[in-house]
Amino acid sequence: MNIVHTGIFFNGIISFIVGITAVALALFSLRRWWSLSSTMRAYAWFWLTTTLVWLPTSLRYFLISSDYTGGAIHTLTILSQAGVAASGPALLYYLCTHHSKGKFWAITLTTLSSILGAIALWVDAQPGGIIIQPATYFSAEIGLNSFSFSIFLIIIAVIYFLVLRDIGFFYAEYKKRHDQQFLYEVLYSVAIGVYLLLGSFEEAGMVSNWPVLVFRSLYVGTFLYVYIVMEKSESIKESYLIDSAATLRQ
User: Are the beta carbons of 198 and 215 closer than 8 angstroms?
Assistant: First the structure.
């Protein structure tokens, strides 16, 4: 392994750590699967799709650092983009049903996102669909074709709008009722906003070389943040149920 590929290999290690952290968060969510509402299952599914992004990404870096130039690199790239596409429908369902019982917009936007994501993924898989960025010491990034990137921007803009609406709604409820559970609902959406902000910069090909490592470290922090929020939120709900049961017995 030459000195140039050492940095890329190190990036692969960092990406693998991100992927393992994503797997741990996904397993934590799946352990509670049967007790979750359909809305929270969509939230858990979103974090599960991140494993499909980061594990192939880390393997791609490892192969590149070993001078491999075969078709597996393209396959892993498409697989990571499939993870990005799969995250859209889950997020839209979660955000549309988080504080509203109506599922019309949830089903409509989820369906449209699934269709557009599948089309973009098909275009990505075609020759020239993925644009290889110039390699640096730490990175060997890719860029999307203009069609797929346009679809990404449309979907991400809708999600950002819904995230901000969600944060505003639950924060207002928290200020009005002083119920800590509403604050945790805010933090759920803040986590999505932070993750998408980081991901948007990377998907746009705006991050390369050593800043990539900084961004990857921030992903790990985001996953740990979500774990803490989910754990605290669940403990509050359990305490409420215990207190309610004790009150009924009196």
Answer: yes
Rounded to whole angstroms, how far apart are CA atoms 206 and 143? Answer: 9
219 contacts 195 by C-beta, under 8 angstroms: yes
List, in sequence order, every residue forming a beta bridge with 37; answer none if it has no partner. Answer: none
d(CA 157, CA 15): 26
Spell out the residues 6+ positions from residue 110 whose beta carbon is closer than 8 angstroms to its own.
89, 92, 93, 96
pLDDT, tens only, 34-73 = 878 888 889 989 999 999 999 999 999 999 988 888 889 9
How many residues are given for the chain? Answer: 250
Give this prediction's pTM.
Answer: 0.85
The closest of 99, 108, 220, 224 to 167, measured between CA atoms, is 99
Residue ranges of E strands in the chain: 130-132, 142-144
